[in-house]
Write a structure and sequence with these properties.
Length: about 325
């Protein structure tokens, strides 16, 4: 039974290539199950998964829930709104209270970087980071890598040139993609206004540009990030109109190149800002493939972490 190096998935920084490959290979086997007339297997029967969402989500939350159902696990769902958090209950007390009801795995989304790691000190369940502030969003990067392998029919991502565009500084998707893609041998460029590039950019070992034309020259794949409208008040760029003019991905801009780019976006999209509607809906866009592959990747992660945990328990029992 294949296992990972760790029974938690807190980020992709430092995760070995063999673990990422195992998750991707397993996800491809689950992807086939999703196409069956009855897309359900008994793999996680008897397991209970808590979806612990302290922050809004559509894609990640729905696809974890669906992945759990496809694997025959029992799911329970926590949303901050409507919970006793509004009465002042702490994160630690909340999670320890729910774990007392007997759960096996926690999928956590929280606005605080490091919150997923913090959980490992509070409870015994396997922890999956579903996005912690601007830190990491590992399952998003895994589904992005799976989608690239599938769409481009690649056995390996080695040498693939990926440009990540936009608000890199505040993006957990960018951070996880950078770590994952580099581990798998891809070449990465980050591109955006200098105010939206991280201070530690050079230490990340990626190409860096503030010129969209340079990124388009470089890349086979464009991973276009959401402009976080809530950041606009911080004066990090003058206006959405100006952002679109200098960094927006329009058909006119793409048509200036002979190559056909693969277009990715983690969602939610600001159509007409970072990406035009005709680009998002074009035949080169894999945005909805990313969403579908998200279910397969999350199935793979849930199963592999459970196997890894069980193997560790058996070892300590024996
Ligand atoms: N890509 C992503 O994390 O989307 P949600 O915020 O809708 O989960």
């Amino acid at each position: 039974m294949p296992v990972l190096s760790d029974r938690h998935l807190l980020g992709l920084e430092g995760v070995p290539q063999k673990d990422i490959q195992l998750i991707l290979d397993t996800a491809f086997t689950f992807r086939e199950i999703l196409d069956r007339p009855v897309p359900k297997v008994p793999t996680l029967q008897g397991q209970t998964v808590l979806n612990f969402f302290y922050e809004s989500s559509t894609r990640t939350r729905m696809s974890f829930e669906l992945a759990e159902k496809r694997l025959s696990a029992d799911s329970i769902n926590f949303s901050k709104s409507g919970s006793s958090a509004s009465k002042g209950e702490t994160l630690r007390d909340t999670i320890r209270t729910i774990e007392a009801m007997k759960i096996d795995t926690v999928v956590i989304r929280h606005s605080a970087p490091g919150s997923a790691k913090l959980m490992t000190g509070f409870i015994d369940s396997n922890i999956i980071n579903a996005g912690d502030g601007a830190h990491e969003h590992p399952t998003q990067a895994l589904l992005d890598m799976m989608t690239l392998q599938e769409h481009l029919n690649l056995k390996s991502l080695k040498g693939l040139k990926v440009a990540i565009l936009g608000d890199i500084k505040h993006s957990r998707v960018a951070r996880s993609n950078i770590h994952g893609l580099k581990t798998m041998g891809a070449e990465v460029m980050i591109c955006g206004p200098s105010t939206l590039l991280p201070y530690e950019a050079e230490a990340l070992g990626v190409h860096i540009s503030t010129d969209i034309n340079e990124a388009l020259e470089f890349a086979d794949v464009l991973n276009i990030l959401r402009i976080q409208l809530e950041r606009q008040k911080g004066g990090l760029f003058p206006s959405l109109r100006e952002y679109r003019k200098f960094f927006g991905i329009t058909m006119k801009r793409l048509n200036g190149y002979k190559k056909k780019f693969t277009i990715m976006h983690p969602g939610p999209l600001n159509r007409g800002v970072e990406i035009d509607a005709d680009v998002a809906d074009s035949e080169h866009s894999v945005i909805l493939n990313q969403v579908l592959n998200g279910v397969a990747v999350r199935m793979a992660v849930l199963v592999l972490l459970t196997q890894t945990h069980n193997k560790g328990k058996n070892r300590s029992d024996g």
